Structure prediction request, 182 residues.
Amino acid sequence: MTLTVRHYTTDQVPEVRSTLLEVYAEVYADDIASDPFAGVDRFAGGLDGWSGRPGWSCAIGYDDEQVVGYAYGAVLPPNARWWGGLLTEVDEDLVRETGTRTYALSELMVRVPWRKTGTSRQLHDALLAERAEERATLLVRQSHPKVHALYESWGWRTIGDLRPRIEHAPLMHAMLLDLPQH
Ligand SMILES: CC(C)(COP(=O)(O)OP(=O)(O)OC[C@H]1O[C@@H](n2cnc3c(N)ncnc32)[C@H](O)[C@@H]1OP(=O)(O)O)[C@@H](O)C(=O)NCCC(=O)NCCS
Prediction:
């Protein structure tokens, strides 16, 4: 398998939006079937919100012309709502946002045939390699300890517990990763 990663920004969303939704519908099929908050329409609303944010970028992986998965995120604004649900007390400088400091990795998903092949790490690295921010953040569900452990094995550190201020939001681990300075 030869993985090709292509990068997209906000003005290219119309080109890739349906692909991103199709992959979501496949990867999260079980959640969609059992959880009304995991529906494709709701995810589409989230995608539209995220892809309109400053600094949104997306890396899509292709094996020949087959889409294998993707990752996307955007830059946190000053006073980001992202940190609003933090339940652990941390130094206030740790969550101080400037609008150029932190890239939030919002989604990373890989279709089943390409799991355990290194594809997820390659997509993650390709997305973050293009970023100029000093660090990245992500939230991972505390009910998914194996995914949490995977991120820790990639160098992410856990800074505390966070429950997004959205109705029915699950308890998450908030994580940070220092990015190489360009
Ligand atoms: C997360 C992901 C990209 C990692 O891909 P990968 O590096 O190839 O690693 P794996 O798929 O083997 O996942 C690592 C472990 O986490 C588990 N895991 C992955 N996604 C999970 C999920 N959504 N819920 C529960 N466990 C999950 C896997 O079963 C695996 O456990 P195992 O080692 O016992 O088999 C891929 O598993 C995926 O697309 N998962 C669904 C989407 C998702 O959960 N994304 C992360 C959001 S923070």
About this structure: The chain has a mean pLDDT of 96. The chain is about 30% helix and 30% strand. The radius of gyration is 16 Å.
